[in-house]
Records
---
Amino acid sequence: MSNGYSSDKSFRHLISCFRTRLKMYIQVEPVLDYLTFLPADTKEKIERQVHTAGNMQAVDMLLSTLERETWPPGWTREFVEALRLSGSQLAARYVNPDLTDLPSPKSETTHDECLQLLTLLQPTLVVRLLVRDVLDECVARDLLTIEDRNRISAAENLGNESGVRELLKRIVQKDNWFSTFLMVLNQTGNGNLAQELTGTTWSENNAESENLSQNDDAEPKEPLISATNQSCSEKESWDIETNSSESSFADSLIVSESDTSLAEGSVSCLDESLGHNSNMGSDSDTMGSDSADEDEMRRASPEPELRLRSYQLEVAAPALEGKNIIICLPTGSGKTRVAVYIAKDHLDKKKKASVPGKVIVLVNKVPLVEQLFRKEFEPFLKKWYRVMGLSGDTQLKISFPNVVKTHDVIISTAQILENSLLNSENGEDVGVKLSDFSLIIIDECHHTNKEAVYNNVMRRYLKQKLKNNIRKKENKPLFPLPQILGLTASPGVGGAKKQAKAEEHILKICANLDAFTIKTVKENIGELRSQIKDPCKKFVIADVTREDPFKENLLKIMTKIQTFCQMIPASDFGTQPYEQWAIQMERKAAREGNRKDRVCAEHLRKYNEALQINDTIRMIDAYKHLEMFYNDEKQKKFAVLEDDNDGMGDDDGSKDEEDEKKPLKLDETDRFLINLFFANKKQLKSMAQNPDHENEKLMKLRNTIMEQYTRTEGTARGIIFTKTRQSAFALSQWITENEKFSEVGVKAHHLIGAGHSSEFKPMTQNEQKEVISKFRTGKINLLIATTVAEEGLDIKECNIVIRYGLVTNEIAMVQARGRARADESTYILFAPSGSGVIEREIVNDFREEMMYKAIDRVQNMKLEEYNHKILELQMQSIMEKKMKIKRMSAKHYRDNPSLITFLCKNCGVLACSGDHIHVIEKMHHVNMTQEFRKLYIVRENKTLQKKYTSDFPINGEIICKCGQAWGTMMVHKGLDLPCLKIKNFVVLFKNNSSKKQFQKWVELPITFPDLAYSEYFFDSDED
């Protein structure tokens, strides 16, 4: 191929020749992510076109833009690569400038016939295919991307039919889609649909598909031709102009009258214009991998048989009689399967009695919604009942009351139900009532206590129950109440030190769930023990004897800071009490307006965190923690300096040169602290990189991992539980970078939470699912996780579980230990001597024993005594909540936010009055006044922009003129809104001149009004 055909002109000619096919084969939104040469405003226009006119029109706009404008060198290759990376490989073959992989005319003909055939049979597929049956397999065979899967799942929330249409719309854009889709159908138990598509059996069709894939010149097989030999009316349907909204599958497949025909947009068309023969490219791509590690993920049957073991039936018995119970079974023993069985039995009985039945399954973590839906409830119940999974992460926001009306089983986060119940009570929305359900299943029900969302839901139940008791005495009709089923592996003892308190805790959980009893296995304990293997428990003591010059240097720096601000802590450096002391000093100094002490306390806290990191993981991780903090501090000061000097003089030098030349705008305290770090920076970095002083804990951890993975000969799976997200990430990095681990087959990855409470970037739900999926298939065999992996998540059984210096309570211990349920598994607690970690683990063992004794005592109570205690505790819970509401109401300055003012916690400048604060979505607090705009500057913060990927994008960080962060600049309905974080301010109460600091807005006893969007629209700086 000559260079002339690789030029921009030839590339644009390729676009014009294949425009029709490109419009069919490109999914435009993911492609835009990879086009770095395309301006942001152009991307926005194209994205708007997707939502207003549909994907095909948006692709047309993109292609027109590429043809019309002049772009930087290399843009053609970038566009082709963008198509490949975003899952539009078939489109990439058409526009590859090398013209080495063009589909042949024969393969185009086959593709078009398959497309027509699929369109004809679409109504059958929409009715008979369950999208969940094939979704995972399509992703595994690269027929769908992860983004495709998410969009299809979102569409499925509107019903299975919508999900199937979205699936079909997307698979036809992929290379070799027809043969791969047939394979998926047969592998997922949908062979009858595959046979309807081809008119052949699976074995015949498989052979034909391979022939088509391997031989471009092969004619399409007879069943395919006969299937597309339609009547005139059927052919005419292909010429009907489609609606641009893309509401149906046909929109993305059928070409409108205004387009050239498929034949005109074919390879033969290019052949004629370029003078080439028609056999320029081969079509011999393979049909997708069929690797063994995916086999175990396949569903053997779309309708598996629902059976319980004897021990499962034993604990389920009272619930099958309609009683409220708590089921306590160890991790891995099949609690959820018991719940599915009870739900089906419940709905079957309701149906037989011609009485409405509806089940809701409540979970406390978003990933559990899909897990329980996909793995448990939907496979076993889909044949008889409509099942739906719903969480706050659902991409298509649909009405919860409508979901409840149209489905028999709903798996939902508890907060969604709580919000809907509140809406119903407040008259804000239709909402739902507890009486809409006949069975409520609560997963991880030990969280039903205090102010947890489970308990808020159950308090409504208890109030209604107590009202029913009164109505019963008055011979009035009772309000219907659902049956309650709680599931837990360990209800815990609530921190009890004595047996009586442990029993009281168990009774409280039973009272909160209105349980008739708490069920554990007794008659079939032998069967349970054969199913659940207790791991071998070990303690690894890591004595610290190394020289640690890095730590010594940090201690010298901290001593200098303490001398400078004349603070004397009562705790040792590097401990949790020291961190608490630093936080208290920081808050006290902020309230008193003592900037010197506040800033010093903040910096001491960062050094203390570095000491803790150095003690747990690598010196270099501790160094990076400090370096990131001080670089951020320096950048804030430069941002303030640049704002002050805005418009003064020309910028000639590079940014680095400017950093050196411009003096920082610092007071005495800032100057001392920043200079102190940067004066020691080079020495600290050198020490941190010295391998002679490696952390002895890491050396022992390395030996432990190596021993376990060598002993199990490639079959090992393990989890290391650690305290913080940062330590999880750092340990994962350390293992990945160390070749010795890979030599024994260790493939590690971190698994951390999805919340935004930590400064460290969270994982998204999709990232979590991907990691767990790879762990299940063996592509990853060692997880380094925070407590997110302790309970609930469907993580494959492990040979080794290590708690790396992390001990919380007896519930977490039981949950973590329950992960080590493979044969001959090991549970290891890693701790330094004298840390108290091992002692706390021994206490947890004692509490676990107390818990089982307490459960046994509660189970053997006389029924009259048990009922009396339960009723007493229920009334106590309701009264405590009423008193708390009264106390909160008395504290609230509900009608007068102007009674408070906000001061910058760093410099004490007056930021704003409380009556300038408005609220968006009942959680984001913003100040839109012109006066406030003059007090802050906005700086770019890429870490924040990556961290917050919610419904409210972040455009930057807002900081005070002193350099103190105040919050973020978020985007809402096209407006930039300064969103304040209350922890960055001191709150002054005007009525008594008191000053307080709060970590969360909910702690502040003030109710702020909602933002009136129209009021501020004309105040915005935008045109």
Note: Residues 1-6, 201-302, 647-663 have pLDDT under 50 and may be disordered.
---
Amino acid sequence: MPLSASTSRKLDAPGPGPVPEPQRKQPQDEVLLERRRVLKEVDLVLQQSGADSTGIGSAGHGPTMKALLNQCTKTSLAPEMAHQGEHRLLPTSGMSRGEHLVRSRLASTGAGDSASDSRYGLRLDAFLRHLDKDRLGELKERFIAMGNALTSEELADLLAGFTGPADQGNAELKEMFLRLHAQLVADEADSAGDSESGGPDVGVVAVPVEAAFLTEAKETEGPEGVVTWTMFAKLLLERGVVDVVGGFNIVTVLGHLDLEKIAPLQDEFKQYRNALNLEEFVVVMKRQFRHSFELARLLDLHGEERRLLAQLVNLFEMIDIGGKNSLSWEEFTSFLVDQGMTEDVHREFNIIRFSRSTSRDDVAHTSYVEKAVYLKNYDKVAFFEQGCRCLKLWTPDLVPYREIRDFTQTPLCVEYIDRYMYVVVACSDLTLSFYDSDNNLKLVRRVNTEKTAQLVMCWSEVGQVLFTADHEGRIFATDVNAVKFGAGFGRSYEAGQGDPWRDFLAPMSRSEPSMRHSDGDDNRLRREATSLGSGRMTGPGSLKVPGGSIVLMLLELPVLAQMASCGVDRNVMIWDVFTGVWKRTLRGHEMGVRCMAFATSTKVLVTGGFDYKLMVWNPYWGKSIHTLHGHAAPIIGIEVLGSSAGQVVSADSAGSLKTWDLATYQCLQTIVVEDVLNLRAFVSIPSHKRVLAADRKFVAYDYQNNGMADQTDEAPIIKAIYNPRLKVFISGCMSHLRIWDAVTGAIKCVIPHKDSEITDFCVDDRGRKVFIADHNGDVSVHNSTTGCFIKKLIGHKKEVSGVIYCTGDRNIITVSWDKSVVVHDESQEAPKIWRQAVNVHHDDISCVAFSHHLGLVATGSIDCVISLREYERLRTVSSLLGHKTGITALAFVEPYAALASADFGGNVAIWSVPAPSGKQHRFVNHVLTRFINMMSLEASASVNCLNPVYEAAGPTFHLYTGDEDGDVRAWDLSQLLTVAGLEPCAPKADWDGWKKDIVEIPASTTAAIARKAVAPETPELKIHVEAQVVRQLCSWRAHSDSVRTLKVYSSPQFVLTAGYDHMVKIWTLEGQLLTVLRAYGQIPWHFPVGPDMDGLDEDTLDEVLERVQEVDRKYDLAKAAMGGARGGAAALTDG
């Protein structure tokens, strides 16, 4: 969303202009309200562009963004910059370093802008910058020794001892410390007030610390007017004096360890016999990251210290993939290597590759293609040939569409205005012609441009004007609304005839001086423009200086509400699209600039020209960020590929096409266009993922990337799950799995599976291993962090239709179309089977459910039978009959002895099943209630997935269903619990998940059961609770195709769905879309987990910490004893 005109002018005001007349000073409250209004509008733009409070997305800045920010912070004061050198559209700190929120005092004195405050801020910054970090421990001890509650005099005396000898007794320095005391007390009072009220008041604005005039705080000298070490430590963190663990990731840091640190770390492993358990590993790693832990303790950041320890625990579990609680140096280093190989895997799904298109240009051209343009929204390619008085329109598939031939001279440029549906053509006969594309390209108006022909055009969507430029460098703005509704509308024109242009110029082009692209000196032009006294800062070319140049391209920068012009004078000039005001000039090219492109994803401008190089610019600031080399001929075109890909393609006259990554500045691909002697035109068609290169004919190249914008995968999704421990999502299609970071939404790892089509997958209880089942009957095990293959389990004879991990037992249950159920032992390196049951069904097994609480395994088949088996031996418990079509989904309703089932007919049934102990329900093995998932009054939709949600408060029982039409529905069955008399049952006791057994059911038995299930005498799902106990809560269209996964999670609370429409989506429980899994795109990532959430529950972490502290104590004692022994030996030697 572009900024409004007023906001754009505030954020992008030019340098010194005409001296304004003295104005009445606005009251302080009006100034604050105006500032707040501007900031609110900028924040709205950021939110609608997918940014959050920390900047353009939550992931770390790439090289392009870092270069932008470095340029911003190194340059002097500018209107576009916020406080402390941060651009409002590109913040780096989120106001957590060097700037923070303080309550506006709304003081009438205005002292916050005084020179005294400025000197105070500079002196405080100097003191903190030169504060000896090694003495922070001593400073904290002094705070504690003085009672950790310092008055202003005590704080001043204490801090004076930490200054240099030359500053001792400095009166100004003491005054600064007294003022600092007042500031800290006031900030603490504000924080307390905000926490009590639930947040800052309306009067809170963002201002620098040194600009806050806290006179009220100086009066506070009562019991609350004291400063603690925590308050001072908070200042050190906010001012960026120390940085503890902000954004710190141990795994990433370990992957970039210096060589000199590797050998000592290996020695630590050897001290523990190269077999570290969890506690020993944490102790060793704590010493490796001693600085971070010491700072956390020093600054009383207990939560950060616990987060660091949780990262170490998670790291150990990621490496100890087998769960044997032992880690060797070889396993540790192998993990780091594997991790390094997956660091940038998500970039592979954003890399665009070109290939020759099947669309061919088989038309005989009369001459060379002089210029070609893609008319966006009209979806046509417009071009004209050398010496030809005809404009040709083709489809993107290179099929001729129309020709416009009523020109007396050759066309020079063409533009399409979607708002008016006009095709605008400028010709060398000094005319602008407007054609109505909605009326068979009828000529609407022809305008005579008087003295010069217009060489280039650009329609501004933000300014709603048509900009054109001529060979003298003059830039004109045409009011197309006047063209449409002005006098003489609809008249007939003879050849070469047109209306006067001045009648249709926008106000910015009617008054002199006009906009002119010039190569004059910026500073001189500013002074001369100011001397005109017009009160309007216009373009440098308005001064009629010699050297006005030919303009070769105009390009709108919509985010900035600005336009760029480039020409043979080697410069790029930036203009305001509302006023025509010249903003700045970009200098750096050695020869003329021919083409430009603006990347909206990274907010950078890319230019190219006759010096063979591409330059990347910060358009906010007018500085070059990077120069790309690689072309060996003049560059004739640059195009951005997609709105979010962050990649551009450039073409030179020798026929070379190069794709560049703007994040790393790497050349991703180079193509040499065949059958081209001199490339003259280059066109990008983003909607068709195609580029066209033209000489005497068009050559088309199609491009693709591994993932479409705002789409999870290129293939239908068969399943998706979330692991709260690792904070990752896992999505799977038939050829691969993708591991997604739940914090950033980015792809972390890809696990390809080329042997056969994937049918199902699951993860272990720690989320460290992923088990992939396929169409061949195999089950392979992979590391979920790196994607590395670990082993294969013993397979089935046919396709595996379901796989479930048994938490606590380290077992895997698999079911297959070979009609068998197998319980595998996954804990050992070699594959092993505990037990299996064969001929469980007469036909293919379609689904499976497992209840650790009940000790039951349920399987469903297309033979319409549900088979219940005890988990410990796989012996038959009962067969549930009543469905008349194949079973599609099963789910146990824990902690009740109940089972939910669904079939192809859209029926959903709730069964009472045997409890592990105690009295059985009176309707055990029968249907309690049923309902039909109706898509309309006449038809039902098959339910593919079920998820019961039980809450003890109430109690409540909700059932979520996903169906073949893409709908999700939530059903309230809470009344069933009361009416049917269902009670939670005790979990199964005396558990033994490692029994060996083989159960063979005679084929005749399962065949007889299958015949009975479909026999007429077996009623269809006869219910035993007659009361109406089912109520639909809500429903929504979740996918445009079949829903294959539906899972409700409690921490955080959300609904995860996956479908055959290639999408994985995240919803609230009421059906409001939160976000989607996507490799890239415009949909922002909003998922309520943060990097500081370690995924470990507090009890587990406390238990680990206790054991770590014990190992720490033993290590310290051993080290002290060794030191004492060495001291005694040294004394004997000296004696």
Note: The longest strand covers residues 943-951.
---
Amino acid sequence: ISSKSKLAGHCHFEDVGNMEDDVALSIMAEAMEKYGKHGSKLGSLPGDSSGKQRVFAVSYEGLMEMQDTYLYYLYHQLGINSTFIPQFYDGNEKYVTLANGTGKEELEHEQQNQEIEVDSRPPKPEEYHPPPPKQSLLPKKVIAIFGPESSGTEFLSTTLGVATGAFPSDGQWSRVVLPSHVSSPVEEWVFRQQNNRRAMSLDGEWEVQNLALPRGRLCTENNTREVNVVEALVPDECFRYESYPDNSPETVEWVWNRELDETEHRFNYTMRRVENNAAGKGYPDGKSESPQAASKSAIAEMCRNEVHITEDSKSWTCGATCGTGQYNGYALYPNRFLVNITSHIEWYKSRGVEVTVLLFMRDRSISKKSKFSNRCVVPAMVDAEADLSLSLMREAMVKFGARSTKGRPHVIPVSYEGLMEFKEVYLFDIYKQLGISSSHVPLFEDGNEKHVKSVDASHRKSGRRNDEKEARSNTDNTGQDPCHRILEENPRNPKTALLPKKVITVFGTESSGSTFLSTTLGKAIGGIFDDIPKTKERTISRQATSLNEEWEIQHLSLPWGWECEEGKEINTVEALVPEECFRYERNPGIESRSAARMFAAESNMQRWHRHQNEPGKPKIIEDLTTCAMKPEEDEKLMSKCREEVHISEENGNWTCGAMCGEGKYNGFALYPQRFSVNITSHIEWYLSRGVDIKVVVSLRDRTISSKSKLDGHCHNPGVVTSENEMALSIITEAMEKYGRRGSKLGSLPGDESGKERVIAVSYEGMMEMQEVYLYKLYDQLGINSNYVPSFDDGNEKYVTYANAANLGKQEMEHQQRVKKNLLDTRPPEPKEYHPPPSKDSFLPKKLITVVGSSFLSTTLAVAAGAFPSEGRWIEKAKSPSFDTDSVDEPLKNAHELVFEDSVGTAAASLNNDWQIQHLSLPMGWKCDGTDHIPDVVEALVPEECYCDASFGLSSDDPKVLEQCRTEVLIAENNTSWTCGSKCGKGQMSGSALYPNSYFVNITSHIEWYLSRGVDITVVLLMRDRSISMKEMQRADCPMAMPTKKLSHSISERTLKTASTARASVKQVNQTALAIKKEAYEKYGKHGSMLKSGDKERVIVVSYEGLLELEGVYLFDLYHQLGISSTYIPAFIDDNAQYIKSDSAHWNDTSIGHKKGNQRKKLLAALDLPSNQNQN
């Protein structure tokens, strides 16, 4: 691929390109030999005494496959402390096709290798000598090679098997008992050219396992649901397939490997022979596999005693399903399964085996094409199994790779392409990492080349254009796939049951980010997407199901369907039924996915006609008969829907979720083309059918969500507003009844647990905290995955600098009313100031630290009785200033009355039960045109003990410092306790000294208060990151704001200062984010530092969710914090002023607006008003 890419771009002369590549390869190989992990020259030069590795080989394909997991592994090797993740665009994919004839040189090379293999193959033995019995079933060391099917694991496992002495270099003859057409079994010679399963050295020192993901029977149309994830691959002697436990796995796999060569009739006959043999029916003497039957019980005994595989043990697991009765001692495996790499490592470690896993990574596109050609003919299964394999590999890499293991890592990534490129140099490095002493070098046959498209002259300069042209030519003239191709290319994957065990439904207003969220969850469960992909990157349309049918992810916007229409009522239905039972009212005879595509084509055509201003109504696409399923297929589906899901016009005790199909459609639920689902009744519909359901609500800034919907789903502002209000009322009702404190939790049969059923998720929080936020959501939902998507912030394009003109009329009037009401209710300034009574204790019983919003900290303080709702007058020290008559002496001890309408640093209730702290990250920072970043302190101490660099102590009473020393344990000479910041000395002992600006490490802040017996909770308010950045520039760093001056009138120094200031703002934000993510990882729900029974100490709150759901969201937060209050503040949307008011015009692509938009964008880049004349 690299050579072809170079030929298309950098060098159009193939011979020159090959010569240059050979030189480059020799340079890199020499460097790896001398300065790689075990380089010959490491530590030999002055200045290199450490002997650490200087050359690292990084796999491009591995990076595209495992993405952030592989990248963090590289960061760790290089000593880089970062969480940056780029966008991963796979440049290989466009070069990959199904296997085809290879180049002439490669073809000759393959033929030579095949001749060598045949010539070197040992002759078939005349007499069979079985291998000597093993002294132990468990080896001392296991090397397990994992990788997706067709990733080349056989090649690497064979190579390492030879290198460890576990597998002969010229292959191996063995005997296997095979079913036969005669009355007794046949023992046949089978030649193994490769270690396709496992191999153990004679001394029992090494075992090399080949573990493709998945392994077992071929994936075909008839067995697409046979994939399960098991705990571990046990020793071969203890391994049996569930379907044929009396037969050795070699026998069963021998039959399976001939599936592609035999007719279905012959295959079924062969499998019947296996079953008959196993039952003792195939032999005159009534025995099954008689040569091995005698030792079967002895082997099972060894498996029970040595490997601890037994149905009776509670301390040990079997690796798969434990055999029972006569099979006690065997682990029984499904016909097709994946092995969880993490638990596989733990299973062997618990039995005293030294285990190392190699993750073999091959170009993802090639691996999938090869698998489709050889192992699995169902495209949806190829995709789903590849995604699930990847999630298992990523999890193992995170838990047992170099970043998480002290000493030798248990998981090592290996590149197939690197092995083909560097050959023995790369291979010997692997040997050394594994502790293998060998010089074995195999024949390297590059299996990738036959999958790579040739690059002709026409592609060399315009390959991408030609690819796009070719892709366009594959569709018809409407831009839609023909209907029959839709169903052929995207067959629905059959299910054993229509109702899964667990359902997660993602709801949200249109354009709220629900598609992104549901697709992420679908991939996290390793789901098969039943929708028909509209783009190369598959997204969930309505449903994705996990391979084992335990999980189903549903996606539904509120409302769902086609373009909105003014004056047309949106129907609200009871529930979203399983996809197989879903049909549209308009034509229930058509499979719903095909109908959806045709309706979309019709809608696009109507829009095109409106755009062209053509008179008359456009032709409506009604001829959808080719999309209809066969009557017998429909009848099978309807029968299952009636019997399993209880959807029937005749069943009075059950409801259909929508309109019940009648007559020949009895069994289908019929839906309008545009509809909403009542979330509350949707939950109850599934609970009544025994399904464990959870609902995830995606919350996004309401202004941005509305503008995005206006651009895409609905072009009528009035309809957008009314539909969003209706959606909001549905979400609010569901949160009140089935949220964290829901009134109906645990009240229905099947819901005895009383656990929360509705979870609100912040789109902005997800874009900000990314994988940390996502993993917490996985924990809440019970999903075991480390899948991380690409986070593309859809909000950014809507955000500009604050401008009152961005506010709509209604929002502006609302904000004016709120501000007027606050002024009217402000208490008058007191004539005489009475300070609050002194506290008995500086440490409260309960502390809530709010990070990021004075609005929220004030709201919580009012609710906790720590701050008056109308605000308060307090006495504060004046800012240090200089007397005009005596500039040498600053004014000291000067105070003034100041009105506070929000919490400053802290507020405490009268009984000191509650204290609310307000914390910004950073505190007190103002940019100064330099790249200085504030220091990080340990904690924000009680305000009585706080000493500011500018203002000094809040009180000069020596008793205060004494109490800080004795109660709060802040003292310079106290080695057992820390001061939170720099300890005050001498007369200042008892105080914590803070600089003018600083960050507070939230993690250590929590631990500081917990160590002093304070019940602390930190609330992180997440707000759109683009808006937060612009708010920081406006408030704390005006010099980073764009200037309205023309570029020629700005000095170079000013431009440089502005650039430095913007870089500072970015760095400050990144530091703040890293602090928040660490705290959330360690003390959020299921945090790594929480002990069993501990409550979560860090709660993430969505600013946008607070503005959207208001009281419902706020009361849920009160409940989490233990605050008993009904206080609701006046909500002002501070985001609205940052969101462009003309978003629709910015996205208009009509020809009539193009020139005007280009001029707008140019003026916007210069930050000039659009009516200003310019050259």
Note: The CA atoms of residues 448 and 482 lie 33 Å apart.
